[in-house]
Specification:
The chain is mainly beta. Helix content is 2%, strand content 46%. It has a 9-stranded mixed sheet with strand order 14-17-12-11-20-19-13-16-15. It has a 4-stranded antiparallel sheet with strand order 4-5-2-9, with no helix packed on it. A 4-stranded antiparallel sheet has the order 25-24-27-28, with no helix packed on it.
């Protein structure tokens, strides 16, 4: 806090407010840089205080044309009141304002014989606050998208990440709009895996093979999400993919979760020219397991599976959704295929996952009631079980 003016000050008093609940007075509160000046706080909210002169008989400051530092006020960052929405939000400039309601503790009314500043709340016209220009940079990560405009039913969206800290782990979901399906993922950075939750929703996350990304303003490509047009559509009609990121999480190298925002780049587009794009574009390919964002982030390694195992689906019988779980004791590529009683393939899930339990969900609302079989292949392990769809 600095003050200055053309006349000698014999008395000074003013209240300050940080202007944002994100800042709270530190327990140290303030340190006087000149004699005879003190600080009182707070107002109950922890973001307001009073600078005042303690000795009314001593000249306080000589007349100067430049400002003089009189007080150093300490405050802490209160993260609970901060909600970033974009990459630029990582910079926050503290704002100071004159407080209309100052703390009553240590309140002292000091006369100003030189008429520079009358030190009471009713006569502060000459007091001007010059706002600080220094900014506080908040740790922030950003996931961004960039879509491809295709002249076929098949398109894709690339997903990038950047952060102003070393990034250890990532986790988020991608969702596409009505009439579009996610057909798989490709171009994955080492240690990035993908899991199919439904035709329109996939989870992307890093595994223990992921290498820490250094802090940078430039983006790094994590993965490519491939998409197709679902069902029938008007020939040559162009559809927007409408891919969005949700549930975004990000961790630093110390394992602490940080703020994460999303940024929408150009939207991917596909054109209805070759029928059912979901299968024409290779539906079900390029998936990849269901491990946590980092093996050491949320999983107890002692609880990892010791052998390959295919679990009975649950619920069973079911209508129309059921879950299938697969235990992986080691990093493995895997395929789970659903067949009807005629041996025809109805659904297929594929991926590559770190040790853990993979969970896939089959929505059979478009399938007929009856018995079905599901088979898993993971490395040298194979197993088959049956389940009942009962509508």
């Amino acid at each position: 806090v600095s003050v200055g003016g053309p006349n000698q000050d014999d008395g000074i008093q003013f209240g300050i407010d940080f202007g944002n609940d994100g800042f709270q007075l530190n327990s140290t509160a303030a340190t006087s840089l000149v004699s005879g000046v003190s600080f009182a706080g707070d107002d109950g909210n922890g973001d307001e205080g009073l600078v005042y002169q303690t000795n009314s008989t001593t000249d306080y400051l000589p007349a100067v044309t430049s400002s003089t530092d009189i007080m150093k006020v300490y405050f802490d960052w209160n993260a609970s009141d901060f909600t970033p929405t974009s990459w630029s939000d990582r910079y926050f400039v503290p704002q100071l304002k004159h407080s209309a309601s100052t703390p009553s503790t240590h309140y002292a009314e000091v006369p100003d014989t030189s008429d520079c500043l009358v030190a009471d709340s009713a006569n502060n016209e000459l007091l001007t606050f010059v706002q600080p220009t220094d900014s506080i940079e908040v740790y922030l990560g950003e996931y961004s998208t960039n879509g491809y405009t295709s002249q076929t039913s098949c398109s894709y969206t690339d997903i990038f990440v950047r952060a102003n800290f070393d990034t250890d782990s990532c986790s988020f979901k991608v969702r596409v709009g009505s009439g579009i399906c996610i057909t798989g993922t490709t171009d994955k950075l080492t240690g990035v895996a993908a899991s199919q939750i439904s035709d329109t929703l996939w989870e992307i996350h890093t595994t223990s093979l992921f290498s820490t990304l250094g802090a940078a303003d430039t983006v790094v490509k994590l993965i490519r999400v491939n998409t197709g047009i679902k069902g029938t559509c008007l020939v040559n009609k162009t559809l927007g993919v409408g891919l969005t990121i949700e549930g975004q999480l990000i961790w630093n190298e110390a394992g602490a979760q940080q703020y994460a925002v999303t940024s929408q780049g150009s939207s991917a587009q596909a054109k209805c020219v070759n029928g059912n794009g979901c299968f024409a574009c290779g539906f079900g390919g390029g998936g990849g397991g269901d491990p946590p964002p980092r093996l050491d982030r949320t999983t107890d390694e002692s609880a990892l599976p010791e052998v390959f195992a295919l679990h009975q689906n649950f619920p069973n019988p079911f209508n129309p959704v059921t879950k299938i779980k697969l235990d992986l004791p080691e990093q493995s590529s895997w395929t789970i295929t659903v067949f009807n009683v005629m041996g025809q393939k109805v659904k297929e899930f594929t991926g590559e996952s770190s040790p853990g339990t993979v969970t896939v969900e089959w929505d059979a609302r478009d399938s007929a009631s009856g018995m079905y079989f599901y088979k898993v292949v993971a490395g040298d392990f194979q197993a088959t079980k049956k389940m009942i769809l009962l509508k």
